[in-house]
Amino acid sequence: MPPSDWQTVVGLEVHVHLKTRTKMFCRCELEYGAPENTHTCPVCLAHPGALPVPNERAIEMTILLGLALDCEIAERAVFARKNYFYPDLPKGYQISQYEAPLCGPGRFALPTEDGEREIGIVRAHLEEDAAKTVHAGGATGRSVGADYSLVDFNRGGTPLLEIVSAPDLRSAEEATWYLRLLRQTIVDLGISDADMEKGTLRADVNVSVRRAGEEGFRSRWEIKNMNSFRFIGRAIEAAFRQQVEAHEAGEEVAQSTYDYDADTDRLTVHRSKEEADDYRYFPEPDLVPFEPPAELVERLRGDVPERPAERIRRLSGELGFSSAAELVTNGKEWKAEALAAEGLDWKTAAAVAMNRDDFLPENAGALARILEANVTREALDEAFEAAAKGPIEAEDYLSQTALADEAELGPIVDAVIAARPEQVEAYRGGKEGVLGFLVGQVMRATQGKADPKVVNRLLRERLRPE
Ligand SMILES: [Zn+2]
Fold first, then answer.
1. pLDDT band at residue 273, thresholds of 50, 70 and 90?
2. What are the residue ranges of helices labelled H in 320-374?
3. pLDDT tens for residues 298-335?
4. How far, in Å, is the centroid of ligand 1 from the Cα of 125?
5. Which of 265, 428, 438, 440 has the most CB atoms in a 10 Å sphere around its CB?
6. 172 phi and psi, to 5 degrees?
7. pTM of this structure
8. Are 337 and 324 in contact (CB under 8 A)?
9. Three-state SS annotation for 265-333
10. 449 CA from centroid of ligand 1 (Å)
11. How far is the CA of 281 from the centre of ligand 1 (A)?
């Protein structure tokens, strides 16, 4: 094990597809999952003479995000050409922003169990995404060894927002927490689905290490195109282990791009320093610089909703930090708040918000009454199903009360215990989780009419070690 005075240093570059109707520089519609190459035009296919026209909505969304991250909004933003050759980039360059991005330095409040950390935002800029290359045949499904490759230009030209953090994150856990909260901020603003599975949110992860108290930074490894919270965390931990090993052995740690291999849980060099890209950035000659009008920035400032960090802080008092954080990063805290506002206790409200489907806010009062009453699980299921579709009346469900009579439930509980000796033994041997299974058996035997709280208690009493 490496000595504990080594510290992880992480910075994230997060790429987000903006949820505009059309592409960044042409009017092709964006449609996820559309048949290949059905949303293209001379602009996004780079026919000679075709000229780009910036998407106003994408610019507004970028400024909105910048405001939510307390960024300085540029008075004069410049689009720049980033030159490189790749089959999925028909122009031979990507229109991006380099020296004058739309959003300059900002900060992101990261609430934690023990207070708050501030993560610096270096910049947020707007660019266009490349098209999608699909490698076919071969054993690995990767470019090396593939039989052939196909390009789908539907994605080419999708507005892409890049948010660059300062190297302020200090662990894998903190980095993924930042990413979850940033993702929720983006979703709340309505500017993107930010869905890693669909590829509408991807992250490049920069990792280096240093000894506690050390000033400045050592060379970093960049892990590109990560699209899973779990793998990002594991890749950061693997990079930490490998870099500490190398530093301890006196080996040179060169700045490079790495790939994370989940099977071996190790990073391997993707591209060495000698081949580092030279993008030859220069201002895009087909576009004039953009100067966001002050009225526009002020209008957008008014559209920024309460930030997730603020909501977590607010709810932590009622629910504790981890429960508040879970609700907020799943976008479900409004349900808990609506039910609690109707008098339901916070703990039940939070559990219902996490585990039940969404309902129309107008039904919060009726649902709170139904939840407080001792109704059957069936009645509860029915109420929630109806509450998602239209207004409901509590009275329609309150008559279906659950079976809580111990004299009636006792023999059923005994029968279940007698019929499941293996599970009973497992529970007595310390497998707490088996209790849920036994509760389920009693629920089944009563067609869902038993009160699970009472069943739980009766089972625990009977299975207590003699
Ligand atoms: Zn187009």
1. very low
2. 321-329, 333-341, 346-355, 364-372
3. 999 999 999 999 999 999 999 999 999 999 999 999 99
4. 21
5. 438
6. -60, -40
7. 0.84
8. no
9. CEEEEEECHHHCCCCCCEECCCCCCECCCHHHHHHHHCCCCCCHHHHHHHHHHHHCHHHHHHHHHCCCH
10. 58
11. 23
Which structure tokens are listed for 101? 């991005």
Cross-sheet strand order for the sheet of 201-211: 106-112, 115-128, 159-165, 6-17, 201-211, 221-226, 256-261, 266-271
Q: Name the residue among 172, 149, 170, 279 with its Cα closest to residue 223.
A: 172
Query: What's the token pair of residue 406?
Result: 């111990």
Identity of the amino acid at 125:
H
CA 46 to centroid of ligand 1, rounded, Å: 9
Between the CA of 96 and the centroid of ligand 1 the distance, in Å, is 17
pLDDT digits (tens, 9 = 90+) for 48-105: 999 999 999 999 999 999 999 999 999 999 999 999 998 999 999 999 999 999 999 9
Measured CA to CA in angstroms, residue 104 lies from 124, 126, 272 at distances of 7, 12, 30
Asked if 176 and 232 touch (Cβ cutoff 8 Å), the reply is yes
Q: Find the 52 Cα to ligand 1 centroid distance in Å.
A: 9
Measured over the CA atoms of residue 108, residue 112, residue 116 and residue 117, the dihedral's sign is negative
60 CA distance to ligand 1 centroid (A)?
Answer: 20
C-alpha Rg value of the chain to the nearest Å: 27
As a 3-state breakdown, the chain gives helix, strand, coil percent values, each rounded to 5, of 40, 20, 40
Mapped onto helix, strand or coil, the DSSP state of residue 17 is: strand
Q: Which of 77, 45, 84 is nearest to 63 (CA)?
A: 77
Alpha carbon of 160 to ligand 1 centroid (Å):
15
The Cα–Cα gap between 60 and 72 comes to 14
CA of 86 relative to ligand 1 center, distance in Å = 18
Amino acid at 330: N
Cα of 349 to ligand 1 centre, how many Å? 47
- What residues have a C-beta under 5 A from ligand 1, the ion? 26, 28, 41, 43-44
Q: Give 45 Cα–ligand 1 centroid separation in angstroms.
A: 7
Q: Which of 393, 365, 358, 364 is nearest to 379 (CA)?
A: 393
Alpha-carbon dihedral angle through residues 184, 188, 189, 190, given to the nearest 10 degrees: 110
Chain centroid, CA 118 distance in Å: 19
Distance CA 178, CA 18 (A): 20
Residue type, 275: E
